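tmp note - Sortilin N-terminal domain-containing protein
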Amino acid sequence: YASLWQVYRKAWKMWGGGPFSGIYKTTDGGDTWEELTKNSGMPEGPIGKIGMAVSPADPKRVWAVVEASEGGVFRSDDGGKNWKRTNDDRKIRQRHFYYSRIVADPLDSEIVYALNTRLYKSTDGGVTFDTQISVPHGDNHDLWIDPNDPKRMVNSNDGGGNVTINGGETWTEQDYSTTQLYHVNVTNDFPYHVCGAQQDNSTVCVPSEGWGNMQARGPNHGWYYAAGGGESGYITQHPSKLDIFYAGSQGALLTRYNRATGQIRDIQVYPRFFSGEPASALPERWQWTFPIVFSPLNEKKLYTCSQHVWLSRDDGQSWKKISPDLTYADPSTLGPTGGLITMDMNGPEIYATVFALTPSKHHINTIWAGSDDGLMHITRNGGKTWDNITPPEMEKFTRISIIEESSHKPGTAYVAANRYQVDDRAPYVWRTRDYGKTWTKIVNGVADGHFARAVREDSVKEGLLFLGTEHGVYVSFDAGDSWQPIQLNLPDTPIRDLQLKNSDVVLGTHGRGFWILDDYDPLREYTDRTAAESLTLFMPHDAVRGEETAIIQYFLSEEADSVQTEIYDSKGNLVVSMVGDSVAQKPTEIHPWYRTRTTGTPTTAKGLNRWEWNLRYKGATMFEGIIIWSGRPQNGPKAPPGTYEARVTVNGITKSIKFNIKMDPRLKGVSKKDLKEQYQLASQIRDKTSSANEAVIQIRHIREQINDRLKKTKDQQIGKISTDLIANLTKIEEALYQTKNESGQDPLNFPIRLNNRFASLRRSVENGDAKPTNGAYKVFEELSTELKEYLETMEVLLIQNLNPLNAHLKSKELEPVSATLE
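out:
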């Protein structure tokens, strides 16, 4: 069986239904087909979309959800010869173009499922669909049923996918990223947040650095938050009032959201609600995703767009129209949409609007505007007059997606546009250097079919561009004259928008959520010489203490046998040194998300390599099997703010570069001196921890030697000296470390000892960026005094016992016991 749907869709119109819609059947593998739509019981035309299902339990039973004036659920029990309408409930057949799926149970011919805004189940052959199965998200589109176990199903909907193993009583969560984003924006928070509007969901903002930066802000105190608006709009943060967000959605919705209080205010330009009406009936045509943007030069100027450009100077309280209609407004693009049977007018096909708006970074009164039907305009006087600057090659019905004005030169701008909705999937990108008087098409290197949606220029290096397309990302080093893909591990997914922030490329994809390419600094420095030099060390991005790592990136012209990386402080003291001999990072122990990042070994691969330093000095001396509670002495003290030097050595060639560790900009009332003091105390505690652990190692080393000698002699004097010495050293060992610990939570059973108290004290001292407390100094003094007493006692024991013991061992021609560690 097969169903055909006669339909076409353009940017301004979808039209479904007609004589070519129908149901067909083949019994010879597709060589010939018989139409069933005209058979007894089927509705009269016109017919639109048809969803079909054949019962595996009874192959003669066929269901069809038919879009027609007298449509509904139809069933045939004789393989399509005769039909009967079993259900005409509109909940099953509303918005046919978006739903209209029906799925048969594989084992029971009476059970059939209908998918619409909800998931419905019939147990009487499709007569009634009174059972509504609750799934985690609405707008259901497909259902797979295990042919051997009908209680095991997979459902797909506008929120993603879900699995049930109990017939829909419970479902798995949608905890993987299939989010469809329309735009992406970044905030001025630290770390910056990534925001976007999710298809059939809320807006969402998340910290760019992930779980380690939960945002306890606003009423929900979650690690992500909605920022007002709705499923399809722009999101814009106020330039200086970081808790204020402006977001849009379908139906001209425009909100002002206060993140601190959770309050949302509607600030629509023209809050006259519309639905089910063609664009021609609307005084203002608001696209599904209309621009919302501030002037980079005046934060009191907030802009948005219908077919006109609107300006607010009072935070959305009032709006002023500052342009004429900047579109073609072709009447043929403003009519009804949906089809012969079912109309569907809720926003996506509202056309002839200003789709892209870019206020200038250079001149307060310059604004660039682009429409979704192929016109570009510019004003140089704040909207009093507008000039048509449409590229001559730009055809009508071209959607101008993004206009990117260069940060480097006034009058230079880049435009990403597309025509896939008129069956033209070619990439369209243009550049102007004279305010749009002349244009150059710049698509060399972009693959056919990779139509463009977003272009951005680096704010540091002129001409370094990133292009978002239907299938991925491209980079250009020459202002767009040539492009090359920079896909890496990015899936093949539509890039709806991209932003550049703090040397990161931030993507909003339509189906795979947010993606970030961290630290593209090497692209700013890369030249043809880079590939020829055996070692190139790139300028690292300054790191923020407590939140980021230092990322050292270097380029090798050939694979190396080994690479050494070193970090030195401003006084030339070695902080950390690592040697690597592998082309990829070697597997390490998997830590929970809340664990401190570790510093791995450098890699030796040909091409670009990346080594991360976790901004910590060397950790305390450790011994095998050590178990510490509430502390991680293997992690060294946090480096204080200041200037550091990275050195990379390959095949005898060493290159160095300096970078800074900065204070967290969110800190209040904390000075660099405070953090230096924190580092100094943490270092002292680290050293004391090492002393305690080294004493334990030394005691075990001595014990091992003594036990070896006792196996070789029965001399009573040797035995007595050895037994007494081991007993006294063991007392010290047990005071320094809880030797009964064998598993991770044993410290809850056996009291912790001195080295654990030191380790926990350092955790306390470094918990946050601040000067150590008076209590921390007091405890450090107490623990240091205890350690000194144990170490002095140990020293006396060794002085008093080792020489006599070794003299007796020598008399028996046995090796002496050494207290020195190799």
